Amino acid sequence: MAEHVFALIDCNSFYCSCERVFRPDLMRTPIVVLSNNDGCVISRSPEAKALGIRMGEPWFKIRKAYAAAGGVAFSSNYALYGDISERVMTVIEGLVPKLEVYSIDEAFAELTGIQSDLVRLGREIRSQVLASTGIPTGVGIASTKTLAKLANYAAKRWQKQTGGVVDLTDSQRRDKLLRAVAVNEVWGIGRQLTERLGAMGIRTAWQLAQADAWTLRKKFSVVLEKTARELQGTACLELDSVAPPKQEICCSRMFGERQEDLPTIREAVATYAARACEKLRAQGSVCRKVRVSIRTGMFNPDELKFAKGMLCELPYPTDDTRLITQAALAGLDEVYRPGFSYAKAEVLLMDLCGRGEFTDDLFAASQPAASEKVMAVLDSVNAKWGRGTLRPGIVPASPEWGMRRELLSQSFTTRVDQLWKVSAR
To answer: What is the spatial distance between Cα 225 and Cα 314, in angstroms, rounded to a whole number?
Structure first.
């Protein structure tokens, strides 16, 4: 059997790159993208990194100095990023035999058995994605997924020398990189694990690869054992062409402003429940329990603190937005207390299973067929005409409690009224 060959294609500073696609005037300008409610930095362009902007930096602390340095900030525009991500993945899928979309901005490809020059193929992928979507990428190629991740890191870390593509299928090149890279750059090695490994004298990827795998398993976990074996070139992780269904589905947001009135919070909970149900149906699951919770801000010493949640049982496993929303609102009515300024609400769908996978007694109720038909119509209309075209009556089109996104760019690819306008001269 041929040795596995994987490629990891990762978009560079993806959210910032998406904003630049429609703002070519910002090609050399420092850019950051902010989290929900414009709270903190979640994406940085290389120019912003050069200014010393750190990931997770609170926006209110840096906004004046950042603006003085000529930087530009954007509120997170997830509709735009999601659409461009789909376009990127579609381009890659047409160039490789098999693809696993790992996250919104990266994907693993199976290259096993390809006889052509792998570096040339990597450059072709980069070129096609850039030409078709405007998004720059890095490509790492290796015999395992962990090594492909490390190759991708090297491709972007030393982009001028590598041209954005690194192939580690050659063992000498692989070992040279492992000796040069700190252990914390290895996929899955976080800060605490780095400290524990450092206490054992393991400070580089090479030292981790040379460590005894069984000892790592006993002292740490089977996951770290597999990581070490993958660094040695033994593939322990296969390509997953289909993402496994989630065991829980959560939808939560911080409010744009503190909310005190129950009717307004009910609107928010109903909105979150409807969104969670969309995700539930998209993966073909039903749920048996719903947990709803609300809380105040937890860090202002002058603000009264309150947080409470409630688990709501459903009469039968369901994916019906109406039934799940009704249960979530009933739970909210129980946990709500007047006199507090609420900052966040959350709806969590729990105890999920696939349709037809649950087992109940002979006389237990099950979701009516009519309910499935109604939800199918709801989803098909919203898929064709846009999310929220059909929605529960309690869900507002433009909520006053919505997230604060003062620096939001246009939805250039997902809304007809915000398409890019080009004038001919």
So the answer is: 41
Q: Which residue has the tokens 């433009």?
A: 398
Which has the closest alpha carbon to 106: 13, 208, 206? 13
Complete DSSP assignment for 345-361: EEEEEEEEEETTT----
Cα(178)–Cα(29) distance, integer angstroms? 34
125 contacts 9 by C-beta, under 8 angstroms: yes
DSSP lists the bridge partners of residue 103 as 106
- Residue carrying structure tokens 């919070």: 265
Q: Do strands 31-34 and 72-75 pair parallel, antiparallel, or not at all (unpaired)?
A: parallel
CA distances from 276 to 249, 290, 425 (A): 6, 10, 47
Q: How high is the pLDDT of residue 113?
A: 85
Question: For residues 268 and 312, is the Cβ–Cβ distance under 8 A?
Answer: no
For residue 219, give the 3-state DSSP assignment.
helix
CA count, 13 A, side-chain hemisphere, 218: 5
pLDDT single digits (tens) 300-354: 788 889 999 999 999 999 999 999 999 999 999 999 999 999 999 999 999 898 8
The pLDDT tens digits of the residues spanning 84-125 come to 999 999 999 999 999 999 999 999 999 988 888 999 999 999
CA of residue 67 relative to chain centroid, distance = 28
Answer whether residue 243 shows pLDDT above 70. no
- Taking alpha carbons only, the member of 118, 115, 178, 190 closest to residue 151 is 178
Closest CA to 327 of 344, 304, 308, 350: 350
Helix (H) or strand (E) holding 310: strand 307-318
| Range in 129-138, 166-175, 348-357 with the lowest mean pLDDT | 348-357
Asked if 204 contacts 181 with a C-beta cutoff of 8 angstroms, the reply is: yes
Continuous H helices in 117-259:
118-133, 145-157, 159-162, 171-180, 191-199, 205-210, 213-219, 222-232
Task: Please tell me the distance from the alpha carbon of residue 150 to that of residue 172, in angstroms, as a whole number.
Answer: 15
